[in-house]
C-alpha cells in the first residue's frame, strides 16, 4: 500500500524531474519526413487520446489529426480540459458536429497514446500530469517537458495551418466540415491575418478556401449572442446617451463581458458617432468597452489615460477595453450609472 505521503513525495519528485526536462527538437528535412516520423509513432491497435484546450484552432487541428491517423489506429478520442463558453465556439461544435468528450469523463489508462495539440504540457496543470507521445503547437517553445515527437513552429499563425500541411503532404483532401473548421481556426488565431503570421498560413487558407462551405463559416462567425443575452441590448438602448458624437451606455450587471463587446460593436455602426463607450459590471469590476473609427483618435491611449492607474486598460487605435475594481471608483455597484460613465470620460475630452 502506498500512503498519501509517499504518493505526494512521488508526484513532487516527478514534477521536479519534469522541470529539469528540455524538449528535444528534431529538425525535419521535409514535410514528407515530418509526416513519416509522426505516423511511425502509431500502431494498428493503438487507442489514441487527443487532448486540447478547446478553441477554434485546437478543435480544427484535433479534427485534422483524427483524420490523419484514424485508419492507422484502433480508436481516436478528442478530449477538452476547459469549459466551452464562447457562443461562436459552441456553434462551431454543433454545426460541424465535432466529436468531443470532457476531460473529466476520460479514463486515461484506457489509451495507449496521447497527443497534445495547439498547446504545450507546461501551459496547463492538467497537461503537466501526462506524458505525451506527440506535441504539435505554434506557441513559443517552453521548457519542462519532452515527447518522442515534437513539432513546434512559433512562426505559424495557427496550428490549423500546420495540420493543413500534414494533410496536403499525405494528399488527403479535407472534407467540407474539416476545411471549414481549419479555415475558422486560422481566421481566429491570426485575427483575420491582422496578427503576425507566415506566408504558409495564407497558402493554407487559399488551399482550404475552395473546399469549405461559406454559409457554415458565416453562421459560426455570426453566432455571438445567446438568446438569454438579448435583454442586455434592450437595457443598452434604454440607457443610450449621446454627447457631441460620443455615445455612452451603462448596461449594469452582465453574466459575461463578451455581450458588452457585441453591443459596442453594434453601436459603432451608427453614422456620425465618433466614439462608443459601453460599460457593465462583471465580478465586482467595471468593464468599459471603447470603440472609435481610429482616425485621429486612439481608443487604446484614451483607455490608458482614463483607467490606466485604476486597473487594467489597453487596446488599439480603434478598439480598447478597461477593467477596474468597483471599489477603486468609490462606487457601489448599483450607484454606477450611464451618467457616472459620462462624468469619468467627458473631462478627458475637455481641453
Ligand atoms: Mn492556436
From TrEMBL:
Residues 54-186 form the DDH domain. GO terms for biological process: methylation. One of its GO terms (molecular function) is methyltransferase activity. Keywords: Methyltransferase, Transferase. Gene3D superfamilies: inorganic pyrophosphatase (n-terminal core). The keyword Lipid metabolism does not apply. Residues 13-22 have a biased composition (Basic and acidic residues). Residues 1-12 have a biased composition (Low complexity). Residues 1-22 are annotated as: Disordered. InterPro entries: DDH_dom, DHH_sf, Oligoribo/pAp-PDE_c-di-AMP_PDE. The keyword Cytoplasm does not apply. PANTHER family: BIFUNCTIONAL OLIGORIBONUCLEASE AND PAP PHOSPHATASE NRNA. This is Phosphoethanolamine methyltransferase. It comes from Thermodesulfatator atlanticus.
